[in-house]
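The record is given unchanged here:
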Amino acid sequence: MKSKSITILWLLCVAQLFGCSARYDGDMPVVPLPPEYGAQLEEDRAVRDDYFQHDPESPLLASAREGFAGLDYFELDESLYFVGDTHFYAEPEQLMMTTTAGAQREALRVGWVGFKIGGERYRLQVYQLLDGEGGLFLPFQDASTGVETYPAGRYINLVSQSPRGPYFFDFNRAYNPSCAYGEPERFACPVTPTENRLDVAIRAGERGAEGESS
């Protein structure tokens, strides 16, 4: 009960930060991390590592599972945890996304999110894959791409407890697509569109993986 009360207080604090401010400019603000966030992040990463090593559907090649010591992650960065609005377009635009296997996947460009890093404003487009589960999908590349992180880009899933928001946009949960680890012909992972390429390094979330973008 105490943990639930703390979480409610945190949500109220978040609402004050972006929902009740006369100076709110549409960008997602950085907010304090939720209670026990660090422990939950470590637990979720351990679950992902276990899936990669033991699950029959693991993206890893069988030869890579032996001696697998876990995925590689950047340190937690509290300045890259944002909460706020996803700005949805009145008429989502249909497009084709090229995959790492050279195929095409249908998607919708449904909206955008804005945020600031180091005082600079950035905007990323949000998509839905028409052959997926309907979640809000945000692929991105940054200045670390191809150097410290996977060349085709990384992904973030935007989540909310309500369709009206607020939405949680957390670079600490950025992850590599499955094609970064397995056989290219087994997966069809969308390559990040040029409109979602950042000129700043995002050193948070999952880092380096073998593989080449198409």
The radius of gyration is 18 Å. DSSP finds three helices and seven strands in the chain. The first strand starts at residue 81 and ends at 84. Strands lie at 81-84, 87-98, 104-117, 120-129, 136-140, 154-160, 167-170.
